Amino acid sequence: EVQLVESGGGLVQPGRSLKLSCAASGFTFSNYYMAWVRQAPKKGLEWVATISTSGSRTYYPDSVKGRFTISRDNAKSSLYLQMNSLKSEDTATYYCARGQFGRYFDYWGQGVMVTVSS
Amino acid sequence: DVVLTQTPPTLSATIGQSVSISCRSSQSLLDSDGDTYLNWLLQRPGQSPQLLIYSVSNLESGVPNRFSGSGSETDFTLKISGVEAEDLGVYYCMQATHAPWTFGGGTKLELK
Question: Is there a contact between A44 and B55 if contact means CB atoms under 8 Å apart?
């Protein structure tokens, strides 16, 4: 059974950093693109980052480019999101998702809440 | 960025009724590789999103065949042939043809 379990969320002050983790199991992690998608409270979905199978290629929207870094450790079947210079508008539930060639997300984690507030 | 406009924003249905949701794109979603990367997801209350359909009309494994997708270029439709109680929630279309990937604003399916 495919499982994606996020961790690392919490309350953080504006301008500070936070690192999210996603532990994957039930599939060969190194064979899949992975992604982060977020959802602000009572709002819709926003794609945040995607990483290729080897980690050599990463993709971001302008809203987080230069502040967020997606990475992976295939030996540990783990995905990460390093978030720097956090803003109040980054407050959201962050979902880890498995990507099929990066074009669609077929499995999602339960999500982890990040609140950016002073 | 590609803007996806979903209509209606809210849909009220009775059990057994067939309904459709529209997703219109600000640009053609036909990729240079010949595929069209328009997907549909359902987010039930309090749950994570779930993939229903990928590349316009391909049913994800385990998804009931009362769900179907159609369309091309800029106009796409998700149809539910006979709504069941478990289908309630918010439906999102998502495009992965043009970076950055974007989502529609959502359509909330409620019981009438």
Answer: no
pLDDT in tens, B63-81: 999 999 999 999 999 999 9
- Give me the half-sphere count of Cα atoms (radius 13 Å) on the Cβ side of residue A70: 28
Structure tokens at B99: 């970076």
| pLDDT tens-digit series, residues A39-91 | 999 999 999 999 999 999 999 999 999 999 999 999 999 999 999 999 999 99
Residue from B33, B38, B107 nearest B74 by CA: B38
**Does residue A14 have a cis bond before it (omega within 30 degrees)?**
no
The span from the CA of B2 to the CA of A23, in Å, is 31
Nearest CB to A104: which of B51, B105, B106?
B51
* End-to-end Cα, chain B, rounded Å: 35
